[in-house]
Specification:
QueA-like, 11 helices
Length: 417
């Protein structure tokens, strides 16, 4: 493959280290009727495709613990989907949709939801050309009175804008959003958000608000499955990665290196990191978001071996994992992170990642993966292919033949290469 200049100005020496992946090789035919547009009545009645050492078997998610390897640990993402769609109606009848992406002022998720008067977000604005007024307003019925939300469109670039929100009566922005916003469901469901999505497009263990899309591998868990996990003494740790809208972005063009991965923010507590460090068995990530976080932790911990003082919160760029030399083991990388937290007196590790995991990527932390069935030619299918090798196509052909339901509300798989 000839070296090209990517939108990020990658020098040829770095470009050569990026695997020469042809995105068109990760196409497959997904018939529309295979897409699950609604969740099953019971979460854990979903099918579970178990792939282990090249062999495939059919199961149900409620029996997950029967197939998990002995001595394993589950790592899952406790992010919560926010009501990120705000719909403003102009007097002319035109509808302006403001879709929240990332907080800008304040930039911290916890702080922005606690704000009681004003905040600023990076947003996608639908029908932006018709937003000519200085402000759009929305009257929001609260429990005992009405709150007025005002939105002012500020700077914009690459299809997004900074939008300043102001509101009355001293409510927190989290309270305003809970009343005024709409849960964003994936565009490929080809329907409007319905009441059922408010509950079912959240995992039962979702806790920390910030995502605009669900970590869908976790949607299958129920109290019954969790009880089985506890009875079999399978340790579970939680981390948080706020899923961005870029998760739905297809890979276009013929050169993978021109695809721009989105930034997603993650965090985990020091006790969770200690538990991960002490674990010696198989690490099973619940979902691709958990994979991306765990693998990012390795590369950040690996960079701390250079004894440089990094910027904090930590950040991993899209191709850093391919450009860096692996200097330490996974255990040592996690130890480096714990040492850094100790030196700085912190109880929670914060960071962001743009890591792109593609075929040829050497996994450092994750040995097992629970995940749904993903869109053709997406960064998620590339991650699955990186994890299972050429067997990804065999897995997907089996799922299509056996009537598995695909995408966010679809069935699940347990991948143990």
């Amino acid at each position: 493959m000839n070296a090209i200049q990517s939108p990020y100005g990658l020098p040829p020496a770095i470009q050569k280290k990026i695997p020469a992946v042809q995105p068109e090789e990760y196409e497959y035919v997904l018939p529309p009727e295979k897409i699950a547009r609604y969740p099953l009545e019971e979460r854990d009645r979903s099918k579970l495709l178990v792939y282990q050492k090249g062999e495939i078997r059919n199961a149900r998610f409620r029996d997950l613990t029967n197939y998990l390897p002995g001595g394993c640990m589950l790592v899952r993402n406790d992010t919560r989907v926010i009501r990120a769609r705000l719909l403003f109606q102009k007097p002319t009848g035109a509808r302006i949709e403001v879709f929240l992406l990332d907080p800008v002022d304040p930039p911290d998720y916890q702080q922005v939801f606690s704000c009681t008067g004003s905040c600023r977000w990076k947003c996608i604005v639908g029908n932006a050309r018709k937003w000519k007024e200085k402000e759009l307003t929305l009257e929001i019925p609260m429990q005992q009175d009405t709150c007025t939300l005002r939105a002012e469109k500020e700077t914009g670039a690459e299809g997004t804008f900074h939008v300043r929100f102001r509101w009355t009566r001293g409510y927190s922005f989290g309270e305003v959003l809970d009343r005024a916003g709409v849960i964003p469901i994936p565009p490929y469901l080809q329907r409007e958000t319905e009441d059922i999505d408010a509950e079912r497009y959240q995992t039962i263990y979702s806790r920390i608000p910030g995502s605009v899309a669900a970590p869908t591998a976790g949607l299958h868990f129920t109290e019954s499955v969790d009880t089985s996990v506890r009875e079999k003494k399978i340790p579970v740790i939680s981390l948080t990665l706020h899923v961005g809208a870029g998760t739905f972005k297809p890979i276009k063009g013929k050169d993978l290196r021109s695809h721009a991965m989105h930034t997603e923010h993650f965090s985990l507590t020091k006790p969770a990191l200690e538990k991960l460090y002490r674990h010696t068995g198989t690490t099973v990530a619940v979902g691709t978001t958990s994979v991306r976080t765990l693998e990012s932790l390795y590369w950040i911990g690996n960079s701390l071996a250079e004894k440089k003082e990094p910027e904090y919160p930590f950040h991993l760029e899209q191709w850093d994992a391919y450009n860096a030399a692996p200097k330490v083991s996974a255990k040592q990388a996690l130890k480096n992170l714990l040492g850094w937290l100790d030196r700085h007196g912190l109880e929670r590790l914060e960071g962001s990642t743009r890591i792109m995991i593609v075929p040829g990527y050497p996994f450092r932390v994750v040995n097992g993966l629970i995940t749904n069935f993903h869109m053709p030619r997406s960064s998620l299918i590339l991650l699955v292919a990186a994890f299972t090798g050429n067997d990804w196509r065999k897995i997907y052909q089996h799922a299509l033949k056996e009537g598995y339901r695909f995408l966010s509300y679809g069935d699940s798989s347990l991948l143990l290469p």
